[in-house]
Each structure stands twice: as C-alpha cells, then as structure tokens.
Amino acid sequence: MKLPALAAACTGLLGIATAMAFFYAPTDTDQGLSQRIFYFHVPLALTSYACFAWGAWKALRHLWKREEGADLASYVAIHQGVVFGALTLLTGSIWARISWGVWWSWNEDQLVLFLVLFLFYCAYFMLRYSVEAGPARANMCAVYAVFGVVLIPVSFLAIRLSKRYIHPVVFNSHGPQMTGSQFLTFCVCLAAMLTLFATLYAVELAGKRLDASLKELRELLT
Amino acid sequence: MTPSEKYTAAAYLVVLVTVLAWVAIIASKLQRLQREVARLVELAREKHANG
Q1: What is the mean pLDDT of residues B31-51?
Q2: Distance (Å) from the C-alpha of residue A123 to the closest C-alpha of chain B?
Q3: Nearest to A133 by CA among A71, A49, A198
Q4: Which of residues 44-103 of A touch B (CB under 8 A)?
Q5: From residue B41, how far is each of A14, A124, A210, A218, B48 by CA, in Å?
Q6: In percent, how much of chain B has pLDDT > 90?
Q7: How far apart are CA A21 and CA A35, in angstroms?
Q8: Among candidates A83, A61, A79, which has minimal Cα distance to A70?
Q9: Which residues pair with A171 in a beta bridge?
Q10: Nearest chain A Cα distance for residue B11, angstroms
Q11: CA distance A117 to A122
C-alpha cells in the first residue's frame, strides 16, 4: 500500500476507533467510563508486541540472510515499539489510578514483566549508540533484538499464569469476555493502532533511508 | 467532571499528544532533509560550474 493511502487509512481508522470507543461501545456496568481506556490501552500493548516481534524478525533476516537494510528496519520497528510501550504504561497507569487507587503496583506480574520488556528494549538504544556504526554493531543489535522477543510470550502469558492477579483478563480460553459491540470496538481500535504503526514505520524508515543516501551523496560531493 | 471522566480524558489525550508530537518530529526531520538536499544541489552546481 502506498504511504498516502496508508496515512489516510490510519487517520480514518483512528477517528472511527475513538468515536466507537465513546459513542458506540456500551458503558461497562462494573468499571463505568474508565473501562473505555481499555480500547486504546490493550491495542497499544498488542501493537508494541507486534513492533518488537517485527523488529526481531528483521534482525533475524539480517543475521540469517544478510538482507540489506534489515538492521535499519529492525531498529525502526523497535523504536516504534518503545513509543507504543511507553503509551501502554502511561494509559495503564492512569487506568490503575482510577480502578486500584494507585499509579503502579509492584505485586502485579503483568505490569512488572511489561516494564522489564520495555526497559530491555530501551537498553537496545544504549547498546546501539555506544558502538560505532558498522557490521559489528548491526550484528550485536540483531542478536539483542532476537533475544528480546522471548520476553513477549512471557509478558503476554503472565496474567494467565499468575496465581494472584488483580489485572483484568479479558481474553481467556472461553474467548473474549465482552459484548459483541465491545469486541467490535476493540477490533477497530486494534486495526487503527496497527495501521498507525505501519504508517509511522514506513515514514520513519523512508526518512532514515533518505538520510543515509544523502550522507553518501555528501561524501561523494565533498 | 468526575475523577473517572478526567482520568479517561487524560488517557486519550496522552495518546493524542504523543501522536501529534511524533508527527511534529517527523515534520522537523523532513525540513532538515529538505535543507540538506538544497545544500547538496548547490554543491553539485558549484562542482559542475568549476568543471
């Protein structure tokens, strides 16, 4: 899909998703209005997992096939994942303040494991910018990105495996625990977030590639 | 506004502001790239004029 079409789809989906979250989905009888945070919070978390997984896949392509540009693509995907991860933590924290009365709970495996995943990928940038650019840095970063992907299923399954959780479990072995309209809203929100990732990923990657080409051109001209 | 309404609005605003900030950063990068292209075009013209 061409970038302008992707950007238009992203804007449209985000608008529809927000409208559905506020005007279409019914108000939860238990949590009230604050339950509407779920429609952005969970898709943000799932999108950050998708970003990290895509980054790991590109890193694997770099290590395995030596695919040109895979290292840069992996870096961009992880960069996006960290931003989506930060938004997940922020929106989750706001929801926790309303529902639990605290901004953060260290007793929650799901929260702590997501924070570990987030910090692990934050450290990716420390590694990347502490090594001089070149094949060695690309290889080190690729190995790091591939290892990090192990944390995704651990983080995802944490609330399902944990014995003492208070974090809500909406998707269990019996399917989604919500009404049809709530599930539809959730799906649209997830599609909107994934499209946002695809758009920002394409824009950032194009910018980085252009930057690299200009650098090469500058070296040729000077 | 009730506290629940305030916090819910804050959660959505956080996402909106972040996306807008992201777009602003991309726009500023694009401007920098445009300046860089203009500078390189100038440099190429100078080289061409000097033979």
Answers
A1: 88
A2: 21
A3: A71
A4: 44, 83, 86-87, 90-91, 94-95, 97-98
A5: 39, 36, 15, 10, 10
A6: 49
A7: 10
A8: A61
A9: A176
A10: 5
A11: 9
Who wins on pLDDT, A197 or A2? Answer: A197
Nearest to B19 by CA among A85, A70, A87, A98: A87
ipTM score: 0.84
At A14, list the tokens: 């985000």
What is the rounded CA–CA span in Å between residue A27 and residue A32? 6
Among A22-36, A41-55, A126-140, A147-161, the range scoring the smallest mean pLDDT is A147-161
- C-alpha separations of A83 from A33, A57, B19, B24, B39 in Å: 25, 19, 10, 15, 32
Q: In this structure, what is the dihedral angle of CA atoms B12, A108, A143, B25, given to the nearest 10 degrees? A: 20
Q: What does the pLDDT average to over A141-145?
A: 95
The predicted-structure confidence for A144-181, as pLDDT tens digits, reads as follows: 999 988 888 887 776 666 655 556 666 766 777 778 89
The answer to whether the Cβ–Cβ distance between A33 and B5 falls below 8 Å is yes
| Mean model confidence pLDDT for chain B | 90
DSSP letter assigned to residue B1: -
Q: Residue A44: its chain B contacts at CB < 8 A?
A: 15
Residue given tokens 């996306």 in the structure block: B19
Q: What are phi and psi of A175, to 5 degrees?
A: 100, -170
